[in-house]
Design brief:
heterodimer, A: mainly alpha, Helix Hairpins, 3 helices, 0% strand, B: mainly alpha, two-stranded antiparallel sheet, 78% helix, Proton-conducting transporter membrane subunit (chain B), CPA3_Na-H_Antiporter_D (chain B), transmembrane helix (chain B), ND/Mrp_TM (chain B), membrane (chain B)
Chain lengths: 122, 504
C-alpha cells in the first residue's frame, strides 16, 4: 500500500493539472476536483499509513501506547475536505452562470478582460 | 491592561465575525446593516489601535485558543508587524465601508455585500495574527472565498470572466499551499510556527526536503501575492468588480500574501538562504519591471492601477531579498504606505468614474477644471505612489534603497529606481488624460446625472480620510520609521517570537 499510494497521488496531480489546462469548462471542474483530491490524499499519507491503531487512550492509562495513528493529519484532512467542497461547489455554480451568460463552453472565448480597450461599464 | 491581552488579541477576529452574523440577520435591510457595520468598523479601528499600543508597550503578545498549550493548540500571536498590518487593514476597511454607502449599487448592497466585507476583514485579521501554518491556510481560504463571492457579486459579464480566472488560479495556489504544509508536517511533525522555527535551526540532514517545502510556499504565496511569473490573473480580474470591492481587494489582499511570505521566510524557511534570497531578488526585479511596463500600455484607469499593484509587490519582495533589518523595515513601511495609497487611488478612480461615467482614459478629460479638489487629492496620492519627497512613498523607497546600497545590491536598487521613474510616467499619463486634457467633445457619450451633495460628500469622505492617513505617515515619518524598525528587529530576532509563543 505504502508503495502504491505515491503513484496514485502523483497520477491524480498530473491528471488534475492536465485537465485544468484544457479549454473545456467541464474538464476544468473535473481537473479542480482531482487536484483537490490529490492534495487531500497527500495530506492523509503524511500521517503514515496504519491499520486499526486508533489514537484512543485506554481508561487505565495516562498516555496512548505506541504505535498509534497520528490524528493531526486526519483533522487537517477533514478541514481541507470541507473547504475544498465549498470552493468546488462555488466554482460549479460560477461556471454554470458563465455558460448561461456567454453561451460558450470554451475558455478561449473569455479573454475580453485581458484586452487593451475594455470600455465596458460598471 | 495585561489581563485583557487575551481578549484584545481575539477582538480583531470576533468583531468582524459578529458583524457578519448580525448583518446576515438583517438580510435585505441595508440601513440596519450599515448601522451594524459602522459600529463594528469603529470598534475594530479602536481595538486594533489599542492592540498596536499594547504590543508597542509590552512586546509580543500571544494567546492560546481553548487554553491548549503552545505547540499543540492554535496560537494567536501579535508582534508589531502583524499589528501594523491589522491596523492598516481596518483603516482601509473603514474607508471602503463608507465609500460603499453611495459608491455601490443598491442591488449589490441588498444581496450580502456587508456580511461578505466583514468576512473578508475576518480573514485578513486571522491571516495576520495566527501562529500556526495550517491555521494560516484556513484564514487564507476564508479570505479567498469572501473575495470570490465579492468579485462575482452582481454577476455582470466582465465580473464572471474575471472571477473564473481568479477562482481557478487561487484554487491551485491553495492546493499547493496545502501540499507544502503537508510536507512540512511530514518532515517535522509540527504546525506551530514557533516550534517549527526551533526545529529548523537544529542541525539535521533533511535540509534539502525542507527547501522543497519552501518552494511550495514560494509558489503558492507567490500566486496569491501576484509576483512574476505568476501574476497574470491579477490584471485580468481586479478591475472587473465595482470600485468599492476592487479597492479593498486590490489594496489589501495581495499584501496579505506578501505578509505571509515575509513571516514564513524570516521565521521558518531559513535553510539554504543564499539560494532563496537570490531567487527573491530575481523575482522582485522582474515583478517590478514587468508590472510597470504592463501599466504603460493600458488605457483604463483601473487597469493601470492593477498593473501597478504588481510592480509594487516587487519592491516588497526586494526588501525581503536584501534581508537586513533596515530593508525589512523598509518593506514593512512600503506595505503600509502601499495599502493606503493604492486603496485611495482606486477610490479616486471610482469617484472619477462615477462623475464621468467612464474609466477610459481616451474618453475622460477636463476633470481638473470640473473637480479641482479631486484633482488635488489624486495628485497627492499619485506623487506618494511614485515616491516624491516628502510623501510616504519616498520614505519607504529611501529606506529600501539605503538598505540595498549598504548591502551592496546595486543592480536591484538601480532597477527599482528606474521603475520609480516609470511609475511617475504612468501617474503623469493618468493626470494628463483624466484631469488636464480637454475632454473630447465629439464623443456623444451619455453624461451621468451629477450626484447630489450628500452622495458627493459620502464619496469624497473616505478619500479625504485616507489622504489624511497618508499625510500623517508622510509628515510623522520619524514615528512610523521607528515603529517599523522595531517591527523588523522583531522579525530578525526570531528568539523573541519563539520565547513569547512557547513561554520559555
Amino acid at each position: 500500500m505504502e508503495l502504491l499510494m505515491p503513484f496514485i497521488i502523483g497520477l491524480l496531480y498530473a491528471t488534475g493539472l492536465y485537465l485544468i489546462l484544457h479549454r473545456h469548462f467541464f474538464k476544468l471542474i473535473l481537473g479542480m476536483m482531482l487536484f483537490g483530491l490529490a492534495t487531500n490524499l497527500f495530506l492523509f499519507l503524511v500521517g503514515r499509513l496504519s491499520r486499526g491503531l486508533a489514537p484512543i487512550i485506554p481508561d487505565d492509562a495516562q498516555v496512548a501506547t505506541e504505535p498509534f495513528a497520528d490524528p493531526v493529519p486526519q483533522a487537517l484532512l477533514l478541514t481541507a475536505i470541507v473547504i475544498g467542497f465549498g470552493i468546488q461547489a462555488f466554482s460549479i455554480v460560477l461556471i454554470k452562470r458563465i455558460y448561461q451568460a456567454f453561451g460558450t463552453n470554451s475558455l478561449d472565448d473569455l479573454n475580453n478582460t485581458d484586452k487593451l480597450d475594455t470600455t465596458h461599464k460598471d | 491592561m495585561p489581563q485583557l491581552h487575551h481578549l484584545l488579541l481575539i477582538l480583531p477576529l470576533l468583531l468582524p465575525l459578529y458583524g457578519a452574523i448580525l448583518c446576515l440577520f438583517c438580510w435585505k435591510r441595508v440601513l440596519l446593516q450599515k448601522v451594524v457595520g459602522s459600529i463594528i468598523n469603529a470598534a475594530l479601528l479602536l481595538a486594533t489601535g489599542i492592540l498596536l499600543y499594547e504590543v508597542h508597550t509590552y512586546g509580543i503578545l500571544k494567546t492560546q485558543i481553548g487554553n491548549w498549550p503552545a505547540p499543540y493548540g492554535i496560537t494567536l500571536v501579535a508582534d508589531l508587524f502583524s499589528c501594523l498590518m491589522v491596523l492598516t487593514a481596518s483603516v482601509t476597511g473603514a474607508a471602503v465601508f463608507i465609500y460603499s454607502f453611495r459608491g455601490l449599487k443598491i442591488q449589490r448592497q441588498l444581496y450580502g455585500y456587508y456580511p461578505l466585507l466583514h468576512m473578508l476583514q475576518l480573514g485578513v485579521s486571522g491571516a495576520c495574527l495566527t501562529g500556526d501554518i495550517f491555521n494560516l491556510f484556513v484564514w487564507f481560504e476564508v479570505l479567498l472565498i469572501s473575495c470570490f463571492v465579492l468579485i462575482t457579486l452582481g454577476g455582470t459579464r466582465p465580473q464572471l470572466e474575471g472571477a473564473i480566472k481568479y477562482v481557478t488560479i487561487n484554487f491551485l495556489a491553495s492546493g499547493l499551499l496545502l501540499t507544502g504544509i503537508g510536507v512540512v508536517y511530514g518532515l517535522t511533525g509540527s504546525l506551530n510556527m514557533a516550534e517549527l522555527a526551533i526545529i529548523v535551526r537544529r542541525p539535521a540532514e533533511n535540509n534539502s526536503l525542507f527547501l522543497m517545502a519552501g518552494m511550495f510556499f514560494i509558489i503558492s504565496l507567490g500566486i496569491k501575492s501576484a509576483v512574476f511569473p505568476l501574476f497574470f490573473w491579477l490584471p485580468a480580474s481586479y478591475h472587473t468588480p465595482p470600485i468599492a470591492i476592487s479597492a479593498y481587494i486590490g489594496g489589501l489582499i495581495t499584501k496579505v500574501g506578501v505578509y505571509a511570505l515575509i513571516r514564513l521566510f524570516t521565521l521558518i524557511f531559513i535553510v539554504d538562504q543564499t539560494l532563496i534570497l537570490l531567487l527573491f531578488t530575481i523575482i522582485s526585479g522582474f515583478t517590478m519591471v514587468i508590472g510597470v511596463l504592463g501599466a504603460a500600455a493600458q488605457y483604463d484607469f483601473r487597469k493601470i492601477l492593477s498593473f501597478h499593484i504588481i510592480s509594487q509587490i516587487g519592491y516588497m519582495i526586494m526588501g525581503l531579498a536584501i534581508f537586513t533589518t533596515l530593508s525589512l523595515a523598509g518593506t514593512i513601511f512600503f506595505i503600509l504606505h502601499n495599502i493606503l495609497v493604492k486603496t485611495n487611488l482606486f477610490l479616486i478612480s471610482g469617484v472619477v468614474g462615477r462623475l464621468n461615467g467612464s474609466f477610459d482614459l481616451k474618453v475622460l478629460g477636463s476633470n481638473y477644471l470640473k473637480h479641482p479638489v479631486l484633482a488635488g487629492l489624486f495628485l497627492v496620492s499619485a506623487f506618494s505612489l511614485a515616491g516624491i519627497p516628502p510623501l510616504s512613498g519616498f520614505w519607504a523607497k529611501f529606506m529600501l534603497a539605503k538598505a540595498g546600497f549598504e548591502a551592496g545590491d546595486y543592480t536591484i536598487i538601480l532597477i527599482s529606481l528606474g521603475v520609480s521613474i516609470l511609475t511617475l510616467f504612468s501617474m503623469t499619463k493618468i493626470w494628463n488624460e483624466v484631469f488636464w486634457k480637454k475632454a473630447p467633445v465629439d464623443l456623444d457619450l451619455p453624461t451621468p446625472a451629477l450626484p447630489d451633495n450628500l452622495t458627493k460628500g459620502l464619496l469624497y469622505a473616505p478619500v479625504i480620510f485616507l489622504i489624511t492617513c497618508i499625510l500623517f505617515i508622510s509628515f510623522y515619518a520619524e514615528v512610523i520609521v521607528g515603529l517599523v524598525y522595531r517591527a523588523a528587529e522583531q522579525l530578525q530576532h526570531t528568539d523573541l517570537y519563539i520565547n513569547a509563543v512557547l513561554n520559555r
